[in-house]
Amino acid sequence: MTGLTFEHPWFLLLLAPALWLGWQRLRSRPATLQFSSLRIAKAVPRSPRARLHWLPDAVRVAAICVLIVAMARPQQVDRELLSGDGIDIMIALDMSGSMNAIDATEDEIQRIQAGGEEPLNRFGTARRILKEFIRRRSADRIGLVIFGGEAYLRFPPTLDYVRLLNALDALVLDDGRRMSQDEQGCRNGCTIAGSGTAIGDAINRAFLRLEKSKSRSKMLILITDGKQEGGSLDPLTVPKYVASLPDRERVRMYTFLVGNGRESRLPAMDPLRGTLLRDRFGRVVYQRPDRPFPTDPELLQQVAKLTGGRFYASYDPQKFEKDFEDLERTTFEVKVHTSRSELFFGWLVAGLLLLGLDLLLRRTVLGRFPA
């Protein structure tokens, strides 16, 4: 987008008196010769030269106005809108067993259940917010890594948001139940075993995908509720490597620690049937975990700081949603790159040329006698 602006716009206030004086000058010119009667003079045909008697004054007024504009320092402004277009994003989503927890008080749970629904657990909240985030993107390639005790690439960076959303919908969180003959298999058909939190492996898998990208901007969004447990790679290995790269090659990492531990509850299991425990109204029963879930906010802060990202402590679903909105507002907001070109010299030359034309007209073809 291009436009015109002025460095010293207050000079433009001089245009009003200049135009007013010029108008007065053109309207009423004092007589240069006196006659006892104008009857004979009016009968004389007017030559083209006489008809253009006003032109030198008009040129002079135009010259003054152009010079006033020059003093106001006109500038051409070119604005280039830079949004999040072209960013490659990898999402690393925790699918460990603790993501089954909900962060709500008993009163909040009862209020939700009274409406015929069940509260979203941490994983369900993260999935809902991520889906809204993806739907708001337009030209950013987005990929997905999931992790529990291990980490897997679920979807490479893509512009096919429909398939990515379908992949998110298809994820099944490990609810902790195991098959009787295969203790490693999930009874609920989980996508990945949730026994562990391989943060380092997840960061590494996401980074390896972004490292291949030729995009001018890359970022990683890490969502977890725990600390490093399991996996083979230290979580700070990749961030330290990223910190050693030039700024233009860095992958910014934004880390979200979800849950608080104060009001965390897990669905209770029926020990006889191996299913979710429900009350007489068919509603899921939630209970406090046997031990608090270990977290490591210092680790996530270091990951973000080393890579030029930001750490968010999203202690409940409402805070998580606000934090993600903050991420979008600060990272994907429309930025305007502005460049200015000086137009002062052109206006100055034009004003001086008009003054020269005024002088030329007065000294030659449109000169008056007496002057």
Describe it.
The structure is a single chain. The chain has 371 residues and is of the alpha/beta class. It has 2 domains: 2-79 and 339-363; 84-333, Rossmann fold. Helix content is 37%, strand content 20%. The chain has helices at residues 15-27, 39-43, 48-51, 55-71, 106-114, 122-135, 161-170, 199-211, 237-243, 297-307, 317-331, 344-363, and strands at residues 2-6, 74-82, 87-94, 102-103, 141-147, 151-158, 217-224, 251-258, 264-267, 286-287, 310-314, 335-342. The strands form 3 sheets. The chain has a 6-stranded mixed beta sheet, with helices on both faces. A 3-stranded antiparallel beta sheet has the order 1-2-12. Helix 4 (55-71) runs antiparallel to helix 12 (344-363) and helix 9 (237-243) runs parallel beside helix 10 (297-307). It is elongated, with a radius of gyration of 37 Å. The two termini are 50 Å apart. The mean pLDDT is 84.
Mean pLDDT: 84
Report Rg: 37 Å
Distance from N terminus to C terminus (CA atoms, Å) equals 50 Å
The tally of structural domains comes to: 2
The biggest beta sheet reads: 6 strands, mixed
Number of helices: 12
Number-wise, the strands total: 12
Strand content: 15-25%
Shape: elongated
* CATH topology group of the largest domain: Rossmann fold
Q: Uncertain regions: pLDDT < 50 for 5+ in a row?
A: none
Overall structural class, as computed from helix and strand content, comes to: alpha/beta
